[in-house]
UniProtKB/TrEMBL annotation:
The lineage of its organism: Bacteria, Bacillati, Actinomycetota, Actinomycetes, Streptosporangiales. It holds the Pfam family Acyltransferase. Residues 104-216 form the Phospholipid/glycerol acyltransferase domain. It comes from Nonomuraea dietziae. Keywords: Acyltransferase, Lipid biosynthesis, Lipid metabolism, Membrane, Transferase, Transmembrane, Transmembrane helix. Pathway: Lipid metabolism. The keyword rRNA processing does not apply. This is 1-acyl-sn-glycerol-3-phosphate acyltransferase.
């Protein structure tokens, strides 16, 4: 593995919680069946739509799949401090998306394979996905149908082309969502936002909107049960998700950040997300200058 390749110390044995309140066997079976039906429907629909309509269909499909899995999405508008965060009152489950005045690069912390579904469910956008997704059965068809933008995390040579593709999409008026940590973390810890994808926003003149994701059980405490880390498998992670009696993901949409360099953008976006999730980022130069 390349020394610059994004990595995380998180493992299932060290980090992943057992649900405090577990769903019964019947509820788990019904969730699994419903999820299979929604996925199959998504593969069909993805072939019949394109452009903006495809993005909105993807949002509806993502909501349906999250609901089938027993995941409730709560969206709030937030503002961030380096030492804490505050958000407006929750709007509950995501409703119809507001009209987008302009394309934006949406950047979020990365915990689970659920994250792309959550982002797609709350805002129409194209997702940046690791190239390996193209080799996964079924998921490949869904990703292609949703207009996912592949990126090879292990290839520095291909990075400029991937950034240029993202910039082209932003210039066309479509929003793009990415997870700049480059890999998943359990949610208790977090990775550094890598700056490459932010260059696409600078090149396209697009705003950068940080989004913070936090998973919790409905009774209140945060949970790492949905985390997809280390040597975890997708099936094992899926079984943990449907085993949580009531899983909630809080989505805090933060104000856009602006800067003149990609590194500054990455630092400021990371700080905003960290403050909204209750973590303190390292005070790097870009943050010190804005404090």
């Amino acid at each position: 593995m390349s020394p610059w390749f994004p990595s995380s110390p998180c493992t299932t044995a060290r980090c992943v919680d057992v649900p405090m309140r577990a769903a019964g066997p019947l509820r788990r079976a019904l969730r699994a069946l419903a999820a299979v039906l929604v996925v199959l429907a998504g593969v069909l629909v993805a072939r019949l739509t394109w452009g903006t309509a495809r993005r909105r269909v993807t949002a509806l499909w993502s909501r349906a799949l999250l609901r089938a899995l027993g995941v409730r999405v709560e969206v709030r508008q937030g503002f961030a401090f380096f030492a804490g965060a505050a958000g407006a009152a929750s709007s509950g489950a995501p409703g119809p998306e507001a009209p987008e005045p302009e394309a934006r690069l949406v950047v979020a912390n990365h915990i689970s394979w659920l994250d792309p579904l959550v982002v797609a469910a709350t805002m129409p956008c194209r997702l940046v996905a690791k190239r390996e997704v193209g080799s996964w059965p079924v998921v490949r068809g869904l990703a292609c149908g949703a207009g996912a933008l592949p990126i090879a995390r292990d290839s520095l040579h291909g990075l400029p082309g991937a950034v240029a593709s993202i910039a082209d999409v932003l210039r066309s008026g479509e929003s793009v969502a990415a997870f700049p940590e480059g890999t998943t973390w359990c949610g208790r810890g977090s990775g550094t936002f890598k700056p490459a994808v932010f260059q696409a926003a600078l090149d396209a003149g697009a705003r950068v909107t940080p989004v913070a994701l936090v998973y919790r059980e409905s009774s209140g405490p945060r949970t790492t049960a949905p985390a997809y880390v280390g040597d975890d498998t997708l099936v094992a992670s899926l079984l943990r998700v449907i085993a949580v009696r009531r899983l909630v993901v809080e989505v805090t949409v933060l104000p856009p950040v602006t800067a003149s360099s990609r590194r500054e953008l990455a630092d400021l976006a990371e700080a905003a997300v960290a403050s909204a999730t209750g973590r303190l980022p390292a005070l790097r130069p870009a943050l010190a200058a804005s404090a």
